[in-house]
Q: What sequence folds into this?
């Protein structure tokens, strides 16, 4: 079973490796990327986790610990490398498309300022939505623990691979169709919502503008911001987390409830156009389906190479 697990990760690691090499190439040519010290810390943590995974694969076999530590290494490397690519993509300063996305929202009947006023009038609801919005990374760290603990390794592979696929598409689209967000485009100030402080700080727009005008090159992890507007990667994560937790009987409704709240929070608390959320949800569903297809294809190939794996490939 452990060997099958390593085979199932080949596509994932091919994609992570390609992203990492692309990130390093961009850093070397443009100078836009992580600080060298931050990069060394990340690589050190990833190497340590992979070493632990190898230990629990070869020396003291424990598939749960082996798969969990490998998954954590994959997630950490992916999050930081793709995050760096989003900064590099922003520095290309492609034409902003806020007008397009705002026009789409108007066509859909979504009034961003109106819903901001509704949230401002209900600070208690705002506090709940802020907590849900900021739960993305803690949930992303929690899910591999839950899935590894119950032995849902195939489901864990599917979550990780869909996360990689969706992240790649998100950064590519956001690079070609950048936007600064409704807060910036509509000229919203704190005076427009005196009773609440939105979950996303205005620093994200400042970082985007600094990258676009060339005044920012190196990214400090302590102050890094999410720069993607369309499609919303918070939405991608919320939908994939729902799918991920569904495999764990005692966690599935936790995943649905918390991520349902996150989806409600994203347009206003996350300063996103409604079309960002719609596109993010569609991308997540497509990535989830693509990951299943890729993993099934890998298993069939493995079964052809090793007939002993044929029963697993048929599952």
A:
């Amino acid at each position: 079973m452990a060997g099958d697990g390593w085979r199932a990760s080949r596509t994932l690691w091919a994609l992570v490796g390609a992203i990492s090499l692309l990130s390093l190439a961009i850093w070397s040519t443009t100078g836009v990327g992580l600080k060298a010290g931050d990069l060394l810390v990340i690589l050190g943590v990833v190497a340590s986790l992979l070493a632990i995974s190898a230990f629990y694969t070869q020396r003291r076999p424990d598939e749960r610990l082996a798969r969990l530590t490998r998954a954590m290494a994959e997630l950490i490397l992916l999050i930081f490398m793709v995050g760096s690519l989003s900064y590099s993509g922003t520095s290309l300063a492609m034409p902003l498309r806020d007008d397009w996305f705002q026009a789409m929202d108007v066509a859909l009947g979504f009034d961003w300022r109106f819903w901001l006023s509704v949230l401002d009038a209900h600070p208690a609801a705002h506090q709940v939505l802020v907590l849900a919005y900021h739960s993305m990374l803690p949930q992303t760290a929690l899910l591999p623990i839950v899935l590894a603990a119950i032995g849902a390794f195939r489901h864990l592979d599917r979550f990780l691979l869909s996360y990689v696929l969706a992240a790649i598409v998100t950064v590519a689209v956001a690079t070609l169709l950048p936007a600064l967000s409704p807060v910036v485009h509509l000229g919203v100030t704190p005076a427009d919502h005196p009773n609440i402080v939105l979950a996303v700080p205005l620093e994200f727009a400042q970082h985007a503008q600094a990258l676009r005008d060339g005044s920012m090159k190196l990214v400090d992890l302590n102050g890094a911001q999410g720069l993607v507007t369309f499609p919303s990667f918070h939405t991608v994560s919320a939908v994939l987390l729902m799918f991920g937790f569904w495999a764990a009987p005692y966690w599935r409704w936790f995943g649905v409830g918390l991520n349902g709240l996150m989806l409600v929070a994203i347009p206003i608390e996350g300063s996103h156009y409604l079309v960002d959320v719609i596109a993010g949800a569609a991308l997540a569903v497509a990535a989830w389906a693509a990951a299943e297809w890729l993993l099934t294809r890998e298993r069939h190939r493995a079964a052809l190479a090793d007939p002993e794996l044929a029963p697993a490939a048929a599952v």
About this structure: Residues 95-314 form one domain. The two ends are 13 Å apart (CA to CA). The chain is about 75% helix and 0% strand. Confidence is low (pLDDT under 50) at residues 1-6.
